[in-house]
Sequence to fold (442 residues):
Amino acid sequence: MNLDKLVKRFKSGDEKAFDALYDATKTPVYYTILRITKDQSLSEDIMQETYMQMIQKIDQYEAKGQFLAWIKTIAKNKALNKIKARSKETPADTSAPEWRISAKTSKSDAQYRLEKMLKILDEEAQFIVVRHVLLNETFKSIAEYLDKPLGTVLWKYRESLKKMKREDGGDEKTD
Amino acid sequence: MKKRIKDLADQGVPDFKDDIKSSDTYLTFMAERQSETRSWRFNPNKAFSGLAAAMVILLAFILFPTQETSTQSSTLYFEINPSFMIELDDADTVSDVDGLNPDGNAIVDTSMIGTPFEDAMDTLIDNALDNDLIDTERSDLLYDVLSENDELKDRHLALVESKLSDIQESKLPSMTMHRGIGGAPTEAEQEIVDTYDIGLMHARLIGRIMSEDETKTIEDLVDKSMPELMNELDEGMMPGQNNGPRHPFDDEDFPPRGGDNGGPPHE
Fold:
């Protein structure tokens, strides 16, 4: 799906284009926010604000195939600002790694199951799976972030999926 | 498994679409944009100019009926880590452009539509170089051209090869070019592209090797470079199978052609 084409249609007032843009970006946007705030309720507020700002600033977006990165940057900045403002009132929680996606509050059943599946992986494997599958980041950028060879990241990703599949299959039998 | 994780993740995402669509911000934005579109459509001056232009064109067709309107086009496929496709009309102008993998999506730009092919190719390669998506020391580029019109296909193939030679000379002296195999990806190919974050033609070459050697798995092959894969394909051939020069993609059985995925049939 070419997001730039949808943006162009959205700018000319096409409501279906907004629906498609929202559906294509909501998951990476939401988990970008949640991994920073670790608070479901706060993440929901920030998510709505992110899309509101996207609408207001859409004319500033230059179509270069980077729409997802652009809206994730809006989401990330908003989340960091909220956390900064909150930390003045309450000390920030540093117990969970930066890339954990789980919320400490009011998780949905799907999130419980997802968290359970991810918990069987070590932290680096969780990072790779979350960044690639949920946040739509390329293996190349993940490898650069971790400062590891691309082949190592690819291998670890594939092994993680196999491990999660085994665990998920075992779970389904016992459920 | 990737789909299962995505499905679970999607289920955990609250849906605020309707809330956003009922907000003042959204409603005001839509009202303004739709009003701009309508006023453009019904502007009497513009409508008159448009009508006058249409009459001139109609007159030209009546007076000079020998010029035939053509809707012929070709689809060009490229892979140099970023994978992308360009649809080219018979005036060699870009009528569509799209990425075929994440890196491809990062370099395509809809403003290329309506520009000459050569300009669009320069922009795409420049974007890829600016984003550090091409290995300038050693890169392999695969390309192919598909069209229902053989004459147009041959002309566009020549145009592509000429432009690629220019790019090789001016921007990527170490680039090696190979004619690959184009066409829209099948569901299985798209899954490999998405899972392993590789280009479409790369995925097809891996599929071709696996179809010739059943002991090979994607994991054995996915990290190999294009020349390594091509060597592997040649080494894996049975004695007597290699009768003369053979292109790595010239097997009629692989990949599956067009049809069920709605893509154009491979010529």
Summary: Confidence is low (pLDDT under 50) at residues 66-70, 237-267 of chain B.
